[in-house]
Each structure stands twice: as structure tokens, then as C-alpha cells.
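[Discussion] Sanity-checking designs against the backbone

I'm trying to build intuition for which residues belong where. Below is a C-alpha cell string of 419 positions. I'd appreciate it if someone posts a full sequence so I can compare it with mine line by line.
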């Protein structure tokens, strides 16, 4: 970070005079936090909101809201209800409710190729309506993952932030002396710079583990985007893959779920895919820990009443297992709502770090300029805006991030119009 000596006053977070190694770490930490601040804060914010995107959709769309009862509809009953309500649409998949007050969600393809969500009450088996495919979950996912840009461009661009994020984590351990004592240190409010410095450090020490998780999983996404991915999981051959010439029989689906559960009792079915009159794919949670539902799957022939294939997450190699673990760890989709909300709070802290870090820079520079004015005999030094100093400090990098976010806004508007 290029600053004048006067713009670098001593703080408790900065290395002491003569600490060359810590000085270098401090400069690296400050440079990354300042130059990448606009982009970093945006990606952190959208990722934080993505962890609760289904809750956002629940608030926005009444069709997604249901009242729990003792009665439960079967998978076959829900499938039949969806196909009766929209006979001209093709059922692609049906997913279990996100939580007890959420409707089950079907993905339907329209005759023109577009997709819509159809919601069905998992207790009564009644279809509650349909909503746009491009909902809050999709917007936040596509934004956080690749900024609505083509995948080959957007995914490496966003996931490359894992490298500077990891560097800020390492550097913070060098520049914050005895950081392990900061977990219970309450911010001091006697002056703004001390207050925000303490807030920044408090949020930082409580976020250390989360920053490590996000940096490592983000680094894996970067590896995948550059060709180092593990590839798709083992394929399960279906009797009639991807064909939906006639609605699937509800009783046959219920028999399939019951038979699969009998043969694999640890599998909790969470979704039906590739549903046709002849076959379907079931997936869900089983013995393998920290994997996506697709890691545990069974193919089933609805007419011959037999399993046509099985995929068990425990049988995956190390490379494939890493690939399957990345999403649950990155978004906190394991462990139910307590983990999901912990990820949301931790993501909010990470976003706070991006904002308070650059604000501290602005305060340091403003204080230095005021001190210089006093030393020159100016009795009424000009007020200097901290955010103005941040804007100046970001320098040419702002002309990279602002146009990029403008492109994202334009792509978002185009997608919303198309939806």
C-alpha cells in the first residue's frame, strides 16, 4: 500500500518500529484489504445472503410456506399431485422440504424449455402454486459463484479471492500480538479509531476458523475451474434416463422408496430425479459425512421393481470426496438450521471485516493529515473525510471493480426480464 510516512501512525494492530517482518505483513494485509475492498465486500455479502437464500424465498413467496401437521404425504403422492396440476410440464426433480414450514419443491420444464418451481405441501400433498425459476436462491448463487458471467470467466475470477483471503488470515496472526487474548476484549469507545480498531480485531479473532474454511474451499473451487476437479460422481444407469413420455405411477414410486429404504435403511431420501414412467433416481443423506445428497444415490426400475445401481459416498476416493465436501463446508448446508445460521453470522462478520478494515485506513490517513495541518500552525485544520481517503486509496483498482459490478447489474437486469 502506497502511503506517506505521516499516513502510517502507530496502532496496536501495527508492528512496532523496527519490526521489519511484521511491517511487511502489515503492509500486505493493508494493501489487500484496501485494493480489493469493493470486490471482496461484495462477494462476502452475497455469499452471506446465499446461506439463507431459501429463507428469503420463503418470505417472498407464499407458495413456499406451509403449516406442519402430523399427517405426511408420500413421495408418490406429491409426484402425482404435481403432474396432475401441470400435465403439460415435464417433472425433472422433486426435493424434500428445506425445513418443517417449507413446501417440497419440484423443478418443472415448460414446453418452451423454460423452468419453473412448483411447490407442494408435504403434509397434505396439495400443490400450493408455482414460482419463477430465477428466485433469490438462484440470483444469489449465480452472483456469488460467477457474477452472472460465463462460468469459465466468472468462477475463476471469484474463487481467486481465496488466495488474498488466505494471505490476510496469515498476516493477521503476525500483526496482532497475542491475538488469542482478543476473544473477550470488548471494544473501547473513547475515540472512533480505537473503537473501530477494536471492533475489527474482535470480529477478526472470532472469524479466524471461518476465514480458513472459506479460503480453503474457495481455493478448491479455483482448482476445479482451472481443470483440477474430480469430475462427476459415478454414473448410475437408468432404464429410461431423462424420458418422461407418461406420468410416473404414484404407487410404483412409493414402492420404490420403501424397497430402497429396506435395502439401505441408513439412506434418508431427500430427492427424486430423472422421473419417468419407467425409472427414477433417488438420492439423500446416508452414512457418509459432509457430502452432497447426490453422493448417495440409487437408480430404480419402476416396472421391474429392482435397483439398477447404487452410489455410496463412503466408496469415493479422496479426490472425489474433497469435491463433494466443498459445498457443505462453504455454505454450511450440513447440520440443519443451527449450522446454517452460524455460517450466516460468520459471513456477516467477514463482511464487517472488509468494511471496518478500509474504514480504519481512512481514519489513519485522516488523523495523519490533521496532525500535519496542526504542525504547520493551522489552528483550524481542514476536516478530512475517512471515506474520501478510502476512495483515494483504492486508486486505479476502483476502475476495475466498479465496471465489473456494473456488468453484473446489467446481466442481472437481463435475467430478471427474461424470467
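Best answer:
Here's mine. Compare freely.
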Amino acid at each position: 500500500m502506497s502511503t506517506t510516512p505521516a499516513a502510517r501512525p502507530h496502532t496496536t494492530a501495527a508492528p512496532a518500529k523496527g519490526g521489519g517482518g511484521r511491517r511487511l505483513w502489515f503492509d500486505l494485509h493493508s494493501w489487500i484489504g484496501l485494493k480489493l475492498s469493493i470486490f471482496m465486500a461484495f462477494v462476502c455479502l452475497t455469499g452471506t445472503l446465499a446461506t439463507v437464500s431459501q429463507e428469503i424465498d420463503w418470505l417472498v413467496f407464499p407458495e413456499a410456506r406451509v403449516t406442519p401437521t402430523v399427517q405426511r404425504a408420500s413421495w408418490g403422492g406429491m409426484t402425482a399431485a404435481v403432474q396432475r396440476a401441470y400435465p403439460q410440464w415435464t417433472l425433472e426433480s422433486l426435493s424434500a422440504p428445506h425445513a418443517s414450514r417449507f413446501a417440497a419443491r419440484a423443478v418443472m420444464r415448460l414446453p418452451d424449455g423454460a423452468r419453473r418451481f412448483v411447490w407442494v405441501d408435504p403434509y397434505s400433498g396439495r400443490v400450493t402454486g408455482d414460482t419463477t425459476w430465477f428466485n433469490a436462491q438462484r440470483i444469489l448463487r449465480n452472483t456469488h459463484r460467477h457474477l452472472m458471467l460465463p462460468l469459465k470467466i466468472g468462477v475463476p475470477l471469484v474463487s481467486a479471492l481465496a488466495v488474498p483471503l488466505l494471505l490476510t488470515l496469515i498476516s493477521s496472526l503476525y500483526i496482532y500480538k497475542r491475538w488469542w487474548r482478543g476473544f473477550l476484549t470488548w471494544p473501547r469507545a473513547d475515540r472512533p479509531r480505537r473503537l473501530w480498531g477494536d471492533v475489527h480485531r474482535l470480529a477478526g479473532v472470532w472469524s479466524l476458523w471461518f476465514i480458513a474454511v472459506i479460503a480453503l474451499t474457495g481455493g478448491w473451487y479455483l482448482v476445479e475451474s482451472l481443470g483440477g476437479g474430480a469430475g462427476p460422481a459415478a454414473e448410475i444407469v437408468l432404464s429410461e434416463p431423462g424420458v418422461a413420455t407418461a406420468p410416473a405411477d404414484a404407487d410404483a414410486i412409493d414402492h420404490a422408496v420403501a424397497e430402497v429404504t429396506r435395502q439401505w435403511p441408513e439412506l434418508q431420501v431427500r430427492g427424486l430425479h430423472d422421473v419417468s414412467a419407467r425409472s427414477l433416481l433417488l438420492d439423500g443423506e446416508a452414512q457418509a459425512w459432509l457430502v452432497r445428497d447426490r453422493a448417495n444415490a440409487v437408480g430404480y426400475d419402476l416396472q421391474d421393481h429392482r435397483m439398477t445401481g447404487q452410489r455410496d459416498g463412503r466408496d469415493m476416493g479422496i479426490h472425489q470426496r474433497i469435491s463433494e465436501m466443498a459445498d457443505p463446508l462453504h455454505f454450511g448446508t450440513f447440520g440443519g438450521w443451527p449450522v446454517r445460521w452460524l455460517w450466516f453470522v460468520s459471513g456477516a462478520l467477514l463482511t464487517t471485516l472488509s468494511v471496518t478494515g478500509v474504514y480504519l485506513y481512512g481514519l489513519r490517513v485522516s488523523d495523519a493529515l490533521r496532525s500535519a495541518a496542526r504542525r504547520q500552525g493551522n489552528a483550524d485544520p481542514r476536516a478530512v473525510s475517512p471515506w474520501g481517503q478510502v476512495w483515494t486509496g483504492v486508486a486505479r483498482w476502483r476502475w476495475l471493480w466498479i465496471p465489473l459490478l456494473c456488468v453484473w447489474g446489467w446481466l442481472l437486469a437481463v435475467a430478471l426480464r427474461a424470467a
